[in-house]
Predict the structure.
Amino acid sequence: MTMRIEVEIDGGSGFCFGVVTAIGSAERELGSTDTLYCLGDIVHNSLEVERLEALGLRTIDHEEFARLHDKKVLLRAHGEPPSTYETARRNHITIVDATCPVVLQLQKKIHRCFVETREKGTQIVIYGKKGHAEVNGLVGQTEGEAIVIESVDDVDKLDFNRPIALFSQTTKSLDGFRRVVEAIKVRISEDVDFQYHDTICRQVANRLPNIQKFASAHDYVYFVAGRKSSNGKMLFEECRKANPNSLFISDAKEITEPLPEGVRKVGVCGATSTPKWLMEEVAEKVKRLNAE
Ligand code: SF4
């Protein structure tokens, strides 16, 4: 008997617009040149990186970048510090700048704040992951002086007798940011200036409530992500809590069984690093397997 099922792909899953735009720039460039260098992984998904590498994309690190001359290099959505642009100028490297506009605005905001508050001895503080590419780009706006804090436990590093200006990496959690703000408010000396800027990107912050809603609206859910993706693990946990009939897969090939009896509405969703084409492949496979 043929089972009639509906398969829906979650429109809110997959790459954020910053990453989609960066990939679009890479594809456009690769249409007219054989090799395009990319400084760091364009996205944290090996299947998508492999797809672009087959078109001529070559991923390099900062050491290789410093040795490169007269080539074209794409800067990914996370952005880069000013030193990267200086190296490019020195080495006659043509930059294809795919820094996400949201990150670019944040870089400018931090730079402005740094210049304007320098004389007052303001500490520029960034709530983010140390060594993360976006954070390195942000710290670079302050001539390396910004203090990076990863959690509320790190606020001990700050001097509460000097002004503080707090910003956030775009992909950090809202809850964590609020906790840091409260901890600083409690400890900052009276009459000392504390300004904080919620610079968290809602493209990612809204994923959690979205995935819960999507998962509970379906009988069965395929959650697609790379096994190493930490964002994938976290979102899948939420997905499974909202709907225990959720299955984690990394590839359409992993689906070998038809759906259990009685399933009608099937959802396909994923992490911020899951390509849309991969979710489409999964949806096709599900339809095929269940039409037989
Ligand atoms: S700022 Fe938002 S849209 Fe831009 S790269 Fe970061 S998460 Fe993506």
